[in-house]
Design brief:
It contains no helices and eleven strands. It is mainly beta. The strands form three sheets. The protein has a five-stranded mixed β-sheet with strand order 3-11-10-6-7, with no helix packed on it. It has a four-stranded mixed β-sheet with strand order 1-9-4-2, with no helix packed on it. A two-stranded antiparallel ribbon has the order 5-8.
C-alpha cells in the first residue's frame, strides 16, 4: 500500500190455481146418474224368465316346468405371468460444467474505505494515541484476476473527514499524470492510503475519492481518549 502524507246464483216454484164452476144450476140431483163403471183389469203378467247360465269354466292348467340346467363350465385357464424384466440402466454420465457463476469483470470490483493503524489493521474505534491512515480499498470478489486503470499514478486522490459538529477537513493528493494499471488478484485487494496521524476524541465520517470512474467510498469511526 502506498502511503502519502498531506499538509404513498234459482229455484223455480210452480203454483196451479183451481177454480170451481158455480154458474151451472142443478134441478134434479137423482136424474143425473153416473153410468161410468170402470172394468179395466190389468192382466199384464210378466213371464220373462232369465235362463242365462254362465258355463264358462277356466280349465287352463299351466304344466310348464323349467328344466334348464346350466352345465356350462368355464375352462379358461389363462395363466399369463408378466415376466417383464426390463431394468432401466440409464447411466447418464453427462457432466454439467456450468458453475452457476456469471463471468466476472471489472464492473464487479468493490470500492470501500477504511481506517487503519500503522500496522495495517482496520477498525472503527481508535484512541487519541493512535496514528491513523485513511485508506481506499478495491476488492476483487471473482475467481479470476482482474485489472483496471487509473488516470494517474494514484489509486485514491482525496480523503475528507467530517466530525460530529460538521466540521470538515480534507486532503488532496498530488499524483503523477501517468496511466497506471492496477492488478487485483482473485479474491484479493489493492489499497492506497494517506497517513493522517492522530485525531482528537470524537465521531468521524471518512470519504475517499478514487482516481477511477469518479468512484467514492465512505465509512464512519470513533476516536476515544
Amino acid at each position: 500500500m502506498t502511503l502519502r502524507s498531506f499538509a404513498f246464483l234459482p229455484l223455480a216454484l210452480a203454483f196451479v190455481g183451481c177454480k170451481g164452476n158455480t154458474d151451472a144450476p142443478v134441478t134434479d140431483d137423482t136424474a143425473a146418474a153416473d153410468a161410468d163403471t170402470d172394468t179395466d183389469t190389468d192382466t199384464d203378467t210378466d213371464t220373462d224368465t232369465d235362463t242365462d247360465t254362465d258355463t264358462d269354466t277356466d280349465t287352463d292348467t299351466d304344466t310348464d316346468t323349467d328344466t334348464d340346467t346350466d352345465t356350462d363350465t368355464d375352462t379358461d385357464t389363462d395363466t399369463d405371468t408378466d415376466t417383464d424384466t426390463d431394468t432401466d440402466t440409464d447411466t447418464d454420465t453427462d457432466t454439467d460444467t456450468d458453475t452457476g457463476t456469471a463471468a466476472c469483470g471489472e464492473a464487479d470490483l468493490v470500492f470501500t474505505a477504511e481506517v487503519q493503524d500503522a500496522t495495517g489493521t482496520a477498525a472503527v474505534t481508535w484512541t487519541a494515541a493512535d496514528d491513523l491512515t485513511m485508506v481506499g480499498v478495491v476488492t476483487n470478489p471473482c475467481t479470476v484476476d482482474l485489472s483496471f486503470d487509473t488516470g494517474s499514478s494514484c489509486l485514491i486522490t482525496s480523503a475528507e473527514l467530517i466530525d460530529s459538529s460538521g466540521m470538515g477537513m480534507g486532503v488532496g493528493i498530488a499524483c503523477a499524470a501517468v496511466v497506471t494499471t492496477w492488478n487485483v488478484p482473485a479474491g484479493g485487494t489493492v489499497t492506497d492510503g494517506i497517513t493522517w496521524g492522530r485525531l482528537s476524541p470524537d465521531s468521524y465520517s471518512l470519504t475517499v475519492g478514487f482516481d477511477y470512474a469518479s468512484m467514492t467510498a465512505s465509512t464512519s469511526f470513533t476516536v476515544t481518549r
